[in-house]
Amino acid sequence: MGADITVAADSVTVKATPLKGTEIDMNKTPDALPAMAVTAAFAEGTTRLVNVAQARGKETDRIACMAAELRKLSVEVEELPDGLVVHGGRPKPASVHGWADHRIVMAMALAGLAMNEPLTVDTAEAMSVTFPDYVNLMHALDADMKVEG
Q1: pLDDT tens across 51-79, in order?
Q2: Is pTM, for the whole model, over 0.90?
Q3: Domains of the chain
């Protein structure tokens, strides 16, 4: 996608660069589908996330759920039997449903960090399933993120 990423022995450095759509076989990393769908929403052009039919059988149907939530952000998305086609651009802030799925909640929270206005994700308590310290870690990176309620 054109990201500027440098991996060293004890660190990873990421620099902001315009991303470009591509095709990604997600079969070996189905849990990354929500985060990659959000990334694709901000990329220029079309991204195809394919060969990941097993994502339909996770905590939720992550293919259908991500398509629904990205549409709320004014992103054009096509749902495939085994993935998503995401037409990138500039998503718009909205209130989205996290589906009580930790990976969807965290991915949608990342989308909010790239927007100029707040994005609200419900069912955020689902993060505690795998990453209870997610918000604190994001604060350490200077992210403007908070859990309400």
Answers
A1: 999 999 999 999 999 999 999 999 999 99
A2: yes
A3: 19-140 (3.65.10.10)
| 81-85 contacts, C-beta under 8 A, 24 or more apart | 81/53, 82/50, 82/51, 82/52, 82/53, 83/26, 83/33, 83/48, 83/49, 83/50, 83/51, 83/52, 83/53, 83/55, 84/33, 84/37, 84/40, 84/48, 84/49, 85/46, 85/47, 85/48, 85/49
List the catalytic residues. 31
Q: Give me the phi and psi of 108, to 5 degrees please.
A: -70, -35
Phi, psi of 26 (to 5 degrees): -95, 10
